[in-house]
Amino acid sequence: MKKYICTICGYVYDESSGAKWDELPNDYKCPICGAPKSAFKQVEESPAKTISSPLDTENHNGIDNFTTLTAGEISAICSSLAKGCDKQRLLPERDAFNKIAEYFKAKAKPENSKAFQDIKKMVDYDLEINFASATEKAKSNSDRGALRSLVWSEKASTMCRVLLDRFNKEGEGLLKNTKIYVCDICGFIYIGDTPPEICPVCKVPKSKILEVERG
Amino acid sequence: MPAFRNVSMCGKDCMCLYVCPTGATDTEDSIIDVNKCISGCSACAQACPSGAISIVPESYPPQQPKSPEVIATQRKLAYSKAQQWQAAEAIAATTDNPITKQFATAIAASNLRMAEDILRESGYMLPQSNEARKLLESLLEYEEPGFPKGAVDLLLKKL
Questions:
Q1: Would you say the CATH fold of A115-215 matches that of A1-47?
Q2: Domain ranges of chain A
Q3: Does any CB of chain A come closer than 8 Å to the CB of residue B68?
Q4: What pLDDT does residue B93 have?
Q5: Rounded to an integer, what distance in angstroms lies between the CA atom of residue A40 and that of residue A29?
Q6: Between these two residues, A76 and B63, which has the higher pLDDT value?
Q7: What is the pLDDT of residue A45?
Protein backbone atom coordinates (compact mmCIF):
# COMPACT_ATOMS: atom_id res chain seq x y z
CA MET A 1 0.00 0.00 0.00
CA LYS A 2 1.34 3.41 -0.95
CA LYS A 3 0.64 6.90 0.27
CA TYR A 4 0.45 10.07 -1.81
CA ILE A 5 0.81 13.57 -0.43
CA CYS A 6 -0.74 16.72 -1.88
CA THR A 7 2.23 19.04 -2.43
CA ILE A 8 -0.03 22.05 -2.02
CA CYS A 9 -1.74 21.53 1.32
CA GLY A 10 -0.16 18.37 2.72
CA TYR A 11 -3.26 16.17 2.59
CA VAL A 12 -2.24 12.49 2.45
CA TYR A 13 -4.10 9.96 0.35
CA ASP A 14 -3.65 6.48 1.74
CA GLU A 15 -4.34 3.54 -0.58
CA SER A 16 -5.11 1.36 2.41
CA SER A 17 -8.25 3.39 3.06
CA GLY A 18 -9.67 3.15 -0.46
CA ALA A 19 -8.87 2.63 -4.10
CA LYS A 20 -5.37 2.23 -5.52
CA TRP A 21 -3.91 5.57 -6.60
CA ASP A 22 -3.70 4.49 -10.25
CA GLU A 23 -7.33 3.49 -10.18
CA LEU A 24 -8.51 6.92 -9.09
CA PRO A 25 -10.03 8.92 -11.97
CA ASN A 26 -7.78 11.42 -13.74
CA ASP A 27 -9.97 14.27 -12.58
CA TYR A 28 -9.52 13.30 -8.93
CA LYS A 29 -9.00 16.44 -6.86
CA CYS A 30 -7.52 17.01 -3.44
CA PRO A 31 -10.51 17.11 -1.06
CA ILE A 32 -8.90 19.92 0.94
CA CYS A 33 -7.51 22.37 -1.60
CA GLY A 34 -8.80 21.18 -4.97
CA ALA A 35 -5.33 20.50 -6.42
CA PRO A 36 -5.37 17.97 -9.29
CA LYS A 37 -3.99 14.46 -9.14
CA SER A 38 -0.75 15.61 -10.77
CA ALA A 39 0.04 17.81 -7.75
CA PHE A 40 0.39 14.73 -5.55
CA LYS A 41 3.60 12.83 -5.09
CA GLN A 42 4.33 9.45 -3.61
CA VAL A 43 5.43 9.73 -0.02
CA GLU A 44 8.80 8.00 -0.63
CA GLU A 45 10.54 10.58 -2.70
CA SER A 46 12.69 9.74 -5.71
CA PRO A 47 16.00 11.63 -6.06
CA ALA A 48 15.82 14.91 -7.94
CA LYS A 49 17.11 14.99 -11.48
CA THR A 50 19.68 17.56 -12.54
CA ILE A 51 18.70 20.25 -14.98
CA SER A 52 20.50 23.40 -15.97
CA SER A 53 19.39 26.87 -14.99
CA PRO A 54 17.33 28.79 -17.55
CA LEU A 55 18.57 32.03 -15.95
CA ASP A 56 21.94 33.62 -15.44
CA THR A 57 22.14 34.05 -11.69
CA GLU A 58 25.86 34.73 -11.39
CA ASN A 59 25.33 38.38 -10.47
CA HIS A 60 23.28 37.49 -7.46
CA ASN A 61 25.65 38.01 -4.59
CA GLY A 62 23.26 39.78 -2.22
CA ILE A 63 24.79 43.23 -2.65
CA ASP A 64 21.92 45.40 -3.69
CA ASN A 65 21.73 48.50 -5.79
CA PHE A 66 20.11 49.35 -9.07
CA THR A 67 22.98 47.86 -11.05
CA THR A 68 22.87 44.40 -9.47
CA LEU A 69 19.11 44.05 -9.06
CA THR A 70 16.78 43.73 -12.02
CA ALA A 71 14.02 46.28 -12.49
CA GLY A 72 11.53 43.54 -11.60
CA GLU A 73 13.28 42.84 -8.31
CA ILE A 74 13.44 46.52 -7.34
CA SER A 75 9.76 46.82 -8.18
CA ALA A 76 8.88 43.79 -6.03
CA ILE A 77 11.01 45.09 -3.13
CA CYS A 78 9.30 48.47 -3.30
CA SER A 79 5.75 47.12 -3.64
CA SER A 80 6.44 44.90 -0.64
CA LEU A 81 7.81 47.81 1.40
CA ALA A 82 4.75 49.85 0.37
CA LYS A 83 2.60 47.19 2.03
CA GLY A 84 4.81 47.40 5.11
CA CYS A 85 4.22 51.17 5.24
CA ASP A 86 0.49 50.64 4.78
CA LYS A 87 0.40 48.31 7.79
CA GLN A 88 2.25 50.94 9.81
CA ARG A 89 -0.19 53.59 8.55
CA LEU A 90 2.66 55.55 6.97
CA LEU A 91 0.59 56.60 3.99
CA PRO A 92 2.85 59.14 2.20
CA GLU A 93 5.69 56.62 2.51
CA ARG A 94 3.44 53.88 1.12
CA ASP A 95 2.56 56.03 -1.87
CA ALA A 96 6.22 56.90 -2.47
CA PHE A 97 7.28 53.23 -2.48
CA ASN A 98 4.38 52.43 -4.81
CA LYS A 99 5.53 55.17 -7.19
CA ILE A 100 9.02 53.68 -7.38
CA ALA A 101 7.52 50.18 -7.77
CA GLU A 102 5.34 51.35 -10.66
CA TYR A 103 8.27 53.04 -12.36
CA PHE A 104 10.41 49.89 -12.26
CA LYS A 105 7.48 47.67 -13.20
CA ALA A 106 7.15 49.66 -16.43
CA LYS A 107 10.94 49.33 -16.92
CA ALA A 108 10.85 45.58 -16.34
CA LYS A 109 9.41 44.52 -19.68
CA PRO A 110 11.28 41.46 -20.99
CA GLU A 111 13.32 42.02 -24.17
CA ASN A 112 11.90 39.04 -26.01
CA SER A 113 8.29 38.05 -26.14
CA LYS A 114 7.66 35.29 -23.67
CA ALA A 115 5.54 32.17 -23.78
CA PHE A 116 4.11 30.10 -20.95
CA GLN A 117 6.77 27.50 -21.75
CA ASP A 118 9.47 29.98 -20.72
CA ILE A 119 7.78 30.41 -17.35
CA LYS A 120 7.42 26.64 -17.07
CA LYS A 121 11.18 26.19 -17.51
CA MET A 122 11.88 28.68 -14.74
CA VAL A 123 9.41 27.19 -12.29
CA ASP A 124 10.75 23.70 -13.08
CA TYR A 125 14.24 24.87 -12.17
CA ASP A 126 12.98 26.51 -8.98
CA LEU A 127 11.23 23.31 -7.93
CA GLU A 128 14.06 20.96 -8.88
CA ILE A 129 17.03 23.02 -7.67
CA ASN A 130 16.47 26.47 -6.16
CA PHE A 131 14.04 25.55 -3.40
CA ALA A 132 16.17 22.63 -2.24
CA SER A 133 19.34 24.71 -1.93
CA ALA A 134 17.54 27.65 -0.31
CA THR A 135 15.78 25.34 2.15
CA GLU A 136 19.07 23.70 3.08
CA LYS A 137 20.66 27.09 3.83
CA ALA A 138 17.62 28.32 5.76
CA LYS A 139 17.71 25.15 7.87
CA SER A 140 21.44 25.17 8.53
CA ASN A 141 21.17 28.81 9.64
CA SER A 142 18.03 28.14 11.71
CA ASP A 143 16.27 30.90 9.79
CA ARG A 144 12.67 30.17 10.61
CA GLY A 145 11.33 33.15 8.64
CA ALA A 146 13.17 32.25 5.45
CA LEU A 147 12.04 28.65 5.84
CA ARG A 148 8.44 29.80 6.23
CA SER A 149 8.63 31.84 3.02
CA LEU A 150 10.15 28.85 1.20
CA VAL A 151 7.47 26.42 2.38
CA TRP A 152 4.72 28.75 1.17
CA SER A 153 6.36 29.64 -2.14
CA GLU A 154 7.24 26.06 -2.94
CA LYS A 155 3.59 25.08 -2.60
CA ALA A 156 2.39 28.07 -4.61
CA SER A 157 5.05 27.27 -7.25
CA THR A 158 3.90 23.65 -7.43
CA MET A 159 0.38 24.87 -8.12
CA CYS A 160 1.73 27.25 -10.80
CA ARG A 161 3.55 24.39 -12.49
CA VAL A 162 0.50 22.12 -12.37
CA LEU A 163 -1.69 24.84 -13.89
CA LEU A 164 0.84 25.72 -16.59
CA ASP A 165 0.80 22.05 -17.61
CA ARG A 166 -2.96 21.93 -17.56
CA PHE A 167 -3.32 25.15 -19.54
CA ASN A 168 -0.89 23.73 -22.08
CA LYS A 169 -3.06 20.62 -22.46
CA GLU A 170 -6.57 21.95 -21.90
CA GLY A 171 -6.22 25.51 -23.21
CA GLU A 172 -9.20 27.76 -22.62
CA GLY A 173 -11.23 24.84 -21.28
CA LEU A 174 -9.29 25.17 -18.02
CA LEU A 175 -11.07 28.39 -17.11
CA LYS A 176 -14.02 28.52 -19.47
CA ASN A 177 -16.76 27.66 -16.99
CA THR A 178 -15.10 28.54 -13.73
CA LYS A 179 -13.17 31.23 -11.88
CA ILE A 180 -9.55 31.74 -10.88
CA TYR A 181 -8.32 33.20 -7.59
CA VAL A 182 -4.89 34.20 -6.27
CA CYS A 183 -4.06 34.43 -2.58
CA ASP A 184 -2.88 37.99 -2.02
CA ILE A 185 -0.57 36.85 0.76
CA CYS A 186 1.27 33.76 -0.53
CA GLY A 187 0.42 33.58 -4.26
CA PHE A 188 -1.47 30.27 -4.12
CA ILE A 189 -3.73 29.94 -7.19
CA TYR A 190 -7.14 28.32 -6.86
CA ILE A 191 -9.46 27.36 -9.70
CA GLY A 192 -13.12 26.88 -8.81
CA ASP A 193 -16.41 28.68 -8.43
CA THR A 194 -15.84 29.85 -4.86
CA PRO A 195 -12.52 30.18 -3.01
CA PRO A 196 -11.79 27.99 0.02
CA GLU A 197 -12.67 29.44 3.48
CA ILE A 198 -8.97 29.82 4.25
CA CYS A 199 -5.95 29.61 1.96
CA PRO A 200 -4.73 25.99 2.10
CA VAL A 201 -1.11 27.22 2.01
CA CYS A 202 -0.85 30.27 4.30
CA LYS A 203 -4.23 29.94 6.10
CA VAL A 204 -5.32 33.53 5.52
CA PRO A 205 -9.14 33.99 5.44
CA LYS A 206 -10.80 34.03 2.03
CA SER A 207 -11.27 37.81 2.02
CA LYS A 208 -7.59 37.93 0.97
CA ILE A 209 -8.00 35.33 -1.79
CA LEU A 210 -8.74 37.56 -4.76
CA GLU A 211 -10.52 36.71 -7.98
CA VAL A 212 -8.71 37.47 -11.24
CA GLU A 213 -11.46 38.58 -13.56
CA ARG A 214 -11.67 38.01 -17.29
CA GLY A 215 -11.42 40.87 -19.75
CA MET B 1 1.14 56.69 17.62
CA PRO B 2 -2.41 56.58 16.35
CA ALA B 3 -5.01 53.90 16.81
CA PHE B 4 -6.04 51.88 13.77
CA ARG B 5 -9.40 50.21 13.21
CA ASN B 6 -9.62 46.97 11.22
CA VAL B 7 -12.96 47.62 9.54
CA SER B 8 -13.55 43.97 8.69
CA MET B 9 -13.49 43.12 12.42
CA CYS B 10 -15.50 46.12 13.62
CA GLY B 11 -18.82 44.98 15.13
CA LYS B 12 -20.15 48.54 15.44
CA ASP B 13 -20.16 48.09 19.20
CA CYS B 14 -19.40 51.81 19.51
CA MET B 15 -17.40 51.53 22.73
CA CYS B 16 -14.62 53.45 20.97
CA LEU B 17 -17.00 56.37 20.51
CA TYR B 18 -17.88 56.40 24.21
CA VAL B 19 -14.29 56.41 25.46
CA CYS B 20 -12.55 58.62 22.88
CA PRO B 21 -11.80 62.00 24.47
CA THR B 22 -11.37 63.79 21.13
CA GLY B 23 -13.88 62.20 18.75
CA ALA B 24 -11.09 60.74 16.60
CA THR B 25 -12.90 57.40 16.34
CA ASP B 26 -16.19 58.92 15.14
CA THR B 27 -15.76 59.22 11.38
CA GLU B 28 -18.12 58.44 8.54
CA ASP B 29 -15.52 56.33 6.68
CA SER B 30 -14.56 54.24 9.77
CA ILE B 31 -10.93 55.39 9.52
CA ILE B 32 -9.70 56.81 12.83
CA ASP B 33 -8.68 60.44 12.41
CA VAL B 34 -4.91 60.48 13.07
CA ASN B 35 -4.94 64.24 13.50
CA LYS B 36 -7.31 64.03 16.46
CA CYS B 37 -5.95 60.80 17.95
CA ILE B 38 -3.84 61.34 21.12
CA SER B 39 -0.55 59.48 21.04
CA GLY B 40 -0.29 56.94 23.87
CA CYS B 41 -4.01 57.13 24.79
CA SER B 42 -5.20 53.69 23.56
CA ALA B 43 -8.57 53.98 25.38
CA CYS B 44 -10.46 52.83 22.27
CA ALA B 45 -8.27 49.77 21.73
CA GLN B 46 -8.78 48.67 25.34
CA ALA B 47 -12.52 49.24 25.25
CA CYS B 48 -13.28 47.55 21.91
CA PRO B 49 -15.05 44.21 22.59
CA SER B 50 -14.35 43.00 19.03
CA GLY B 51 -10.59 43.54 19.21
CA ALA B 52 -10.84 45.60 16.03
CA ILE B 53 -8.57 48.46 17.14
CA SER B 54 -4.83 48.27 17.51
CA ILE B 55 -2.19 50.87 18.32
CA VAL B 56 0.39 51.34 15.60
CA PRO B 57 3.87 51.17 17.21
CA GLU B 58 6.04 54.26 17.41
CA SER B 59 9.30 52.52 16.61
CA TYR B 60 10.54 49.11 15.56
CA PRO B 61 13.51 47.05 16.73
CA PRO B 62 16.28 46.26 14.23
CA GLN B 63 15.47 43.29 12.00
CA GLN B 64 16.66 39.84 12.95
CA PRO B 65 20.04 39.30 11.32
CA LYS B 66 20.15 37.28 8.08
CA SER B 67 23.15 35.20 7.16
CA PRO B 68 24.81 36.06 3.82
CA GLU B 69 24.23 32.56 2.46
CA VAL B 70 20.52 32.68 3.25
CA ILE B 71 20.34 36.09 1.58
CA ALA B 72 22.11 34.70 -1.49
CA THR B 73 19.78 31.71 -1.94
CA GLN B 74 16.66 33.77 -1.20
CA ARG B 75 17.74 36.37 -3.78
CA LYS B 76 18.32 33.71 -6.41
CA LEU B 77 14.75 32.52 -6.00
CA ALA B 78 13.35 36.03 -5.85
CA TYR B 79 15.14 36.84 -9.09
CA SER B 80 13.57 33.81 -10.76
CA LYS B 81 10.10 34.70 -9.43
CA ALA B 82 10.48 38.30 -10.61
CA GLN B 83 11.44 37.01 -14.08
CA GLN B 84 8.37 34.78 -14.15
CA TRP B 85 6.20 37.67 -13.01
CA GLN B 86 7.52 39.86 -15.83
CA ALA B 87 7.16 37.12 -18.44
CA ALA B 88 3.55 36.51 -17.41
CA GLU B 89 2.82 40.25 -17.41
CA ALA B 90 4.20 40.44 -20.94
CA ILE B 91 1.92 37.61 -22.10
CA ALA B 92 -1.08 39.27 -20.46
CA ALA B 93 -0.22 42.60 -22.12
CA THR B 94 0.14 41.22 -25.66
CA THR B 95 -2.52 38.50 -26.04
CA ASP B 96 -5.90 39.13 -27.60
CA ASN B 97 -7.46 36.07 -26.01
CA PRO B 98 -9.39 37.00 -22.83
CA ILE B 99 -8.83 33.62 -21.14
CA THR B 100 -5.10 33.59 -21.93
CA LYS B 101 -4.93 37.11 -20.51
CA GLN B 102 -6.82 36.08 -17.37
CA PHE B 103 -4.59 33.05 -16.83
CA ALA B 104 -1.38 35.03 -17.44
CA THR B 105 -2.56 37.74 -15.02
CA ALA B 106 -3.11 35.11 -12.32
CA ILE B 107 0.34 33.57 -12.93
CA ALA B 108 1.85 37.07 -12.78
CA ALA B 109 0.08 37.95 -9.52
CA SER B 110 1.10 34.66 -7.95
CA ASN B 111 4.77 35.16 -8.85
CA LEU B 112 4.81 38.77 -7.64
CA ARG B 113 3.38 37.70 -4.26
CA MET B 114 6.07 35.01 -4.02
CA ALA B 115 8.87 37.39 -5.04
CA GLU B 116 7.72 39.93 -2.44
CA ASP B 117 7.55 37.37 0.33
CA ILE B 118 10.94 35.80 -0.47
CA LEU B 119 12.48 39.29 -0.63
CA ARG B 120 10.97 40.22 2.75
CA GLU B 121 12.77 37.20 4.17
CA SER B 122 16.07 38.32 2.67
CA GLY B 123 16.43 41.56 4.64
CA TYR B 124 13.60 43.69 3.26
CA MET B 125 11.03 43.07 5.98
CA LEU B 126 10.92 46.58 7.40
CA PRO B 127 10.71 49.80 5.41
CA GLN B 128 12.96 51.28 8.14
CA SER B 129 15.68 48.64 7.66
CA ASN B 130 19.26 49.37 6.64
CA GLU B 131 18.77 47.26 3.51
CA ALA B 132 15.88 49.43 2.37
CA ARG B 133 17.84 52.59 3.14
CA LYS B 134 20.88 51.36 1.20
CA LEU B 135 18.75 50.58 -1.83
CA LEU B 136 17.10 54.01 -1.64
CA GLU B 137 20.48 55.71 -1.30
CA SER B 138 21.76 53.90 -4.37
CA LEU B 139 18.69 55.13 -6.26
CA LEU B 140 19.79 58.73 -5.63
CA GLU B 141 22.34 58.12 -8.37
CA TYR B 142 19.80 56.69 -10.76
CA GLU B 143 19.52 59.11 -13.67
CA GLU B 144 16.67 58.32 -16.05
CA PRO B 145 13.93 60.59 -17.38
CA GLY B 146 10.64 60.10 -15.61
CA PHE B 147 12.16 58.47 -12.52
CA PRO B 148 10.27 59.66 -9.42
CA LYS B 149 13.29 61.00 -7.53
CA GLY B 150 10.99 62.98 -5.25
CA ALA B 151 9.65 59.71 -3.86
CA VAL B 152 13.19 58.57 -2.99
CA ASP B 153 13.94 61.90 -1.30
CA LEU B 154 10.74 61.71 0.72
CA LEU B 155 11.48 58.18 1.89
CA LEU B 156 15.08 58.93 2.88
CA LYS B 157 13.88 61.95 4.84
CA LYS B 158 10.94 60.36 6.61
CA LEU B 159 11.98 56.77 7.30
A1: yes
A2: 1-47, 60-112, 115-215
A3: yes
A4: 92
A5: 10
A6: A76
A7: 55
CA–CA min distance A163, chain B (Å):
9
* Predicted local confidence at residue A60, as pLDDT: 54
- Which DSSP helix (H) or strand (E) runs through A191? strand A189-192
Right CATH number for A115-215 from 3.20.20.20, 3.40.50.2000, 2.20.28.10, 1.20.1090.10? 2.20.28.10
Percent of chain A topping pLDDT 70:
92
Provide the CATH number for the domain formed by B3-55 in this structure.
3.30.70.20
Report A:16-55 residues touching B (Cβ under 8 A): 55
Domain A1-47: give its CATH code. Answer: 2.20.28.10
Give the up-direction half-sphere exposure of residue A47: CA atoms within 13 A in the CB hemisphere: 2
Q: Chain A neighbours among B 84-143 (CB < 8 Å)?
A: 84-91, 94, 97-107, 109-122, 124-127, 131-132, 134-135, 138-139, 141-142
A36 DSSP 8-state letter: B
Across-strand partners of B3? B55
Amino acid letter for position A34: G
Alpha-helical regions (H) of chain A: 71-87, 91-107, 116-125, 131-140, 144-170
CA of A201 to nearest chain B CA: how many angstroms apart? 12
B59 touches chain A (CB under 8 A): no
B76 pLDDT more than 90 = yes
User: What are the extents of the domains in chain B?
Assistant: 3-55, 65-124, 127-159
Closest residue in B to A153 (Cα–Cα): B114
Digit-coded pLDDT (tens) for A134-161: 999 999 999 999 999 999 999 999 999 9
Q: What is the largest CA-CA distance in chain A?
A: 59
Count of CB pairs separated by less than 8 Å, A with B: 259
d(CA A180, CA A190): 6
Q: Choosing among B31, B59, B94, B110, which should be mutated to test the A contact, i.e. which has the most A CBs within 10 A?
A: B110
Q: What pLDDT score was predicted for residue A49?
A: 52
